[in-house]
Design brief:
single chain; about 900 residues; alpha+beta; five-stranded antiparallel β-sheet; 39 strands; about 30% helix; transferase; ubiquitin-protein transferase activity; zinc-finger; zinc; ubl conjugation pathway
């Protein structure tokens, strides 16, 4: 029997049912313990455990499926040979056993032992008890072990310090300590090039020297160089904070005839692209005339061709209706043996008479004569593709050009990638262009929008059912969808010629990749005990496994994200909320002496229950202990009941000491659910959250959250670390977002928001050169935008578009002049002045403006000084008559 090739690769899933032979060399098989699942054990989560049975063998361990490890109640026998086990026991007693020594008793090493097992990283792990592939050592025991052991590992358990860097509106933003935007970068700020022809052994420093020798001056700290060395060549990927660097480098190397060459590589965090075009043209076809002596046969054959019951070389062809020609000879009685004719069109150009005869399967439909017409053109697909490539290269440099393999379709297809998006759009002008080589046949050229989203493979599997359903809809919209799995991550790609359809599909993929934040009543579900890999985190992973979903923990944002079917969201929310409630309640234990135990049995436990409430105190008659699951006050109150104190004393203990927290400086009432700032001023939590959210609009200068204590005179500026301590994660992220939005609003000359409704992405403004601005396409909605005049004017220059548009705006200009409405000279927001002085403040960008000459100032004092010096006053001279 033939060997199973999949078994040799370790990927056969048929087991004993496989029809091919599974042969394993027992001499080279590694002695290995059963592989535990990647998911944490739940044995350590039980409160009351039964006594361990050391005599009953765990049946799941024998199958390699036990997930409880050392916490299992049943016996886990050793799978090593007795001699090896004895040697290990002896070494263990001497304190010298090691992992390497344990494996020293193996036979010859299996050749597959060094290849990582690809199933180990999947949900549930590898299920083979004697898997021949490598199971890399990972710290899964940290998730399965006792919480006390895990918490001792400070490196793993400590909550990662937030660096206050966020991705918002397609940009990477870093906030400083007070919440102000410190650094903002966009993908378009950088350019990247792949440099080839580099000598082996070249270092990064030498590459920097080469670039400087070419006349490039750049900051080394913002430059990233990655060397790739193979047997055939050495190349480097250079990324510089200069949008024109890659293209300029390629041009300089080419002009200097250097042995080096450079190819620009696009940069985009969203992996969206508009640089690809599809080109197609009709394959060569011909017409064929079929002659019949009987009209019924002619009609029948024509109908079968039109219904695709008859195909020529696998291609559907069209047939005309049967036509009758006049008979031969004298008069109406003349006889014509081929009086009925049908014409076949779209017949493959390479078809012969024998191919046409073979297409007519029935012997009763055989024509009496077949006349073949000439092919529409005679050159090969490869020859045509050469001419097409020449036409494309007139519009820009190509990164790749691929002629699709011959298929059964009626068109020849080519895909081409341009180095620049503008070149790809320019190449679309070739659409419907006739080519002489095609016999005046026309090309079809379409710009392809494509987008990629990279997600963890576990997240893709959790959403697979929904993705498969969406893919059916995408196919109906003529979109192509592919999944590229790559170990722990998978790349989801969608592309098509319709911008709206691709954007709609991309939004769905983004929803899948971002997941849903678990919230209860508008508040994120979170607890500080989830910051470490303790018991609570272990129970969280058990819930994840039971529901077959993914629950992602973000320590920096203090959030849990849910990935999976929507119908399981509420179930996951309920289970996690219940688990956190149980884990967050501390347990206090009271050991009962004989007198107190007797008092408990005679009704004392009921007295404690009446004082503390139900489900707080639990009496264990076996161990003679009482467990108090609650607060320190409830524990002290239980002791007070046992000591026989009065109800008033017990009530004071439960209520706790009354502490006057002070009045809230926002609502001037006694602080409710108070928080205390570092300056010792006390706020209501709700008032504090509202003040933080409004800080962006109330800050006179740059963003900051200022303490409002001491009647607003407190100089303390609250830091982001302090805000994160007091605010919920959702409110904290809202504060950061409002700081970012205010930063953009105050810089309209530098940044603008995409004008497409509900897009939300930003772009950097540019100055048009030669009347045209650099081409830019929003990476979220794929709409082309002019970054100079902020309009969509296609191939028109800014001046041409403004000239076309000006006619319709003349009436609006006159109306605005009559209503005393002017546009802000900084951000073009319309403003109306109805009364007051000539100093105006733009509500959008906060610019201080002189209404007379529309000069812009950073502060109001210079504006007033300007009005007095230049205009002779601030515009309130008409009020003097009331004073006089």
């Amino acid at each position: 029997m033939t060997l199973c090739k999949y078994f040799q690769q370790g990927s056969c899933r048929n087991g004993e049912a496989c029809t091919w032979r599974h042969e394993r060399d027992t001499n080279t098989l590694r002695y290995a313990e059963p592989v535990a699942s990647c998911l944490p054990a739940i044995g350590g989560l039980c409160i009351n455990r039964q006594a361990r049975s050391n005599t009953i063998v765990c049946k799941y361990f024998v199958q390699g499926k036990c997930t409880k490890g050392n916490e299992c109640d049943y016996l886990h026998p050793s799978t090593r040979p007795p001699s090896q086990q004895a040697q290990e026991d002896a070494l263990s007693r001497n304190g010298s056993v090691s992992r390497q020594h344990t494996n020293s008793f193996q036979g010859p090493q299996d050749s597959r032992a060094g290849i990582p097992c690809r199933y180990l990283s999947l949900p549930g792990g590898c299920q083979k008890s004697l898997c021949p592939f490598l199971h890399a050592e990972k710290n899964y025991e940290a998730e399965r072990g006792d919480a006390r052991d895990v918490e001792a590992d400070e490196d793993d358990d400590q909550e990662h310090e937030d660096d206050f860097t966020r991705s918002l509106a397609g940009a990477s933003i870093h906030f400083n300590g007070s919440g102000e935007v410190d650094k903002l970068t966009l993908p378009a700020d950088y350019s990247r090039a792949c440099v080839t022809g580099i000598a082996a052994g070249t270092t990064n420093e030498q590459i920097v020297d080469i670039l400087r020798g070419l006349g490039f001056e750049f900051d080394v700290h913002s430059t990233h160089i990655l060397l790739h060395t193979t047997l055939s060549e050495t190349k480097a990927t250079v990324k510089v904070k200069d949008p024109h660097f890659a293209k300029e480098l390629a041009t300089r190397l080419k002009n200097q005839h250097s042995t080096l060459s450079a190819m620009p590589i696009p940069i985009d965090t969203r992996q969206a692209s508009c640089r690809k075009v599809y080109i197609s043209w009709h394959k060569a076809t011909k017409s064929v005339w079929l002659n019949f002596g009987n009209g019924n046969i002619a009609y029948r054959v024509a109908e079968k061709f039109n219904k695709s019951e008859y195909k020529c070389l696998g291609q559907s062809v069209k047939s005309s209706i049967a036509n009758q020609s006049k008979g031969r000879g004298r008069g109406a009685l003349g006889y014509n043996p081929v009086a009925w004719t049908i014409t076949l069109s779209d017949v493959p150009g390479c078809a012969t008479q024998e191919d046409v005869k073979a297409a007519i399967a029935s012997s009763h439909d055989t024509p009496r004569h077949i006349e073949m017409g000439p092919a529409s053109y005679s050159v090969s697909d490869a020859e045509v593709s050469v001419e097409v490539r020449k036409l494309l290269e007139k519009h820009g440099q190509l990164e790749s050009f691929r002629l699709a393999p011959a298929s059964g379709g009626k068109r020849v297809k080519v895909s081409a990638w341009f180095g620049e998006e503008a070149d790809a759009r320019s190449a679309c002008s070739l659409n419907n262009q006739s080519l002489d080589i095609l016999g005046k046949g026309k090309l079809t050229v379409a710009l392809v929008q494509s987008a990629k989203v990279k997600v963890r493979t576990t997240i893709y599997l959790a959403w697979k059912k929904r993705i498969d359903e969406e893919a059916k809809t995408w196919r109906q919209e003529h979109l192509t969808f592919h999944v590229y799995p790559n170990g722990s991550h998978s790349t989801l790609k969608v592309e098509g010629s319709s911008t709206k359809d691709v954007v709609r599909a991309l939004k769905i993929l983004n929803e899948i990749s971002e997941g849903v934040v678990l919230t209860d009543g508008g508040t994120s579900v979170w607890s500080s005990i989830l910051g470490s890999n303790g018991v609570a985190y272990g129970r969280l992973k058990v819930i994840e496994k039971e529901l077959q979903v993914v629950i992602d923990r973000s320590r920096s944002k203090r959030q849990l994200r849910f990935y999976g079917p929507p119908e399981k969201y509420q179930q996951a929310l309920h289970l996690i909320s219940t688990m956190l409630e149980e884990e967050c309640r501390p347990t206090y234990e009271i050991k009962l002496d004989p007198d107190h135990f007797a008092w408990m049995m005679k009704g004392g436990s009921k007295s404690i229950e009446r004082a503390l409430g139900t489900d707080v105190a639990v009496l264990d008659v076996v161990s003679k202990k009482m467990a108090i699951r609650g607060t320190q006050q409830q524990y002290d109150a239980a002791l007070a009941v046992m000591e026989g104190r009065t109800e008033n004393e017990i009530r004071k203990i439960l209520d706790g000491p009354f502490v006057l927290e002070g009045d809230c400086p926002i609502c001037f009432c006694e602080a409710d659910a108070h928080i205390q700032a570092s300056c010792k001023h006390t706020y209501c939590l709700e008032c504090f959250e509202g003040a933080c959210q409004a800080a962006a609009s109330t800050s006179k200068g740059e963003f900051q959250v200022k303490c409002q204590g001491a009647d607003g005179t407190c100089p303390t500026i609250l830091s982001l670390k302090e805000l994160k301590t007091h605010l919920s994660s959702s409110v904290f992220e809202t504060v950061l977002k409002s700081s970012f939005e205010e930063y953009i609003r105050r810089r309209p000359e530098t940044f603008r928001c995409c004008p497409t409704p509900d897009c939300g992405y930003i772009y950097r403004c540019t100055i048009a050169s030669d009347g045209k601005s650099p081409p830019y396409t929003c990476r979220n909605c794929f709409e082309p935008i002019c970054t100079s005049c902020h309009e969509r004017h296609g191939d028109y220059s800014c001046a041409e578009y403004k000239d076309i548009k000006s006619g319709g705006y003349e009436a609006l200009r006159r109306l605005k002049s009559e209503l005393n409405i002017k546009d802000c000279p900084k951000c073009t927001t319309p403003m109306e002045k109805t009364e007051g002085c000539n100093h105006m403040t733009c509500v959008a960008c906060k610019a201080d403006i002189c209404w007379v000459c529309m000069s812009v100032f950073e502060e109001r004092e210079p504006c007033y000084a300007h009005m007095r010096e230049v205009h002779g006053g601030i515009g309130l001279d008409h009020l003097r008559r009331f004073v006089d």
